[in-house]
Write a structure and sequence with these properties.
Strand order of the largest sheet: 1-7-6-2-5-4-3
Bound molecules: adenosine-5'-diphosphate, magnesium ion
Largest sheet: 7 strands, mixed
Oligomer: single chain
Number of domains: 1
Number of strands: 7
Shape: globular
Length: about 160
Amino acid sequence: MIGKGDQLAREIEKVTGSPEATWDLGRELAATLRAGHVLILTGDLGAGKTALVRGIAAGLGVKGHVSSPTFTILHMHEAGRPGGLALNHFDVYRLSDAQAFYDNGLDELVGQEAVSVLEWGDRVREALPREAIEIKLTFGQEADQRIFKIIYPDQDERGDL
Ligand SMILES: Nc1ncnc2c1ncn2[C@@H]1O[C@H](COP(=O)(O)OP(=O)(O)O)[C@@H](O)[C@H]1O
Ligand SMILES: [Mg+2]
C-alpha cells in the first residue's frame, strides 16, 4: 500500500561497538555520497563525530589526515584521485549561529563539487541546504557503544545504507 509515510523523511539506525566499527560505517556511508551532498553531525563531545568523518574520508579516498578541526572551523581535503570527490570537513562548535557562518563566507564552501560534513552542524542549520542528511550520535549503554540515527530528507534519491 502506498501510504503517507512515503512522503516522510527516512531514518536508519546503526549501532557500533568500537571506533573501528564507526570507521567502517563512515566508509559505507561514503559509498552512497555524491558531489554536493551535505551531512550534519550532531552529538556531544566524544560521541564519535570525528571518528565517523575519518571513515568517510577513507571511503572517499581523499588526501590528508582527518583531525578535529575545532580550532580551524574547516579542513578542506582534495580528492585523492582524478574524478574523485573532495571533502570539506567543518567543526562549527565555536560559531554562535547561522549569521556567523555567513559572515565567515562558509556557506559558499558548502555544496558545490565537494561532500560537506559539519560537526555540530545544527548550530548553523538555517545556513545549510534543506536537503542535508542529518546524523544524530548518542552514547549507548556500553562504554564503546555509539548509536547513529541517520535521517534522510524527504523524497531523497540517495541509497540507504
Ligand atoms: N563506537 C565508537 N565509535 C566512535 N568512537 C568511539 C567508539 N567507542 C569509543 N570511542 C571513542 O570515543 C571518542 C570519540 O571521539 P571523537 O570522534 O573525536 O568524538 P567527537 O568528534 O564527537 O567529539 C574517541 O576517543 C574514540 O576512541
Ligand atoms: Mg570532533
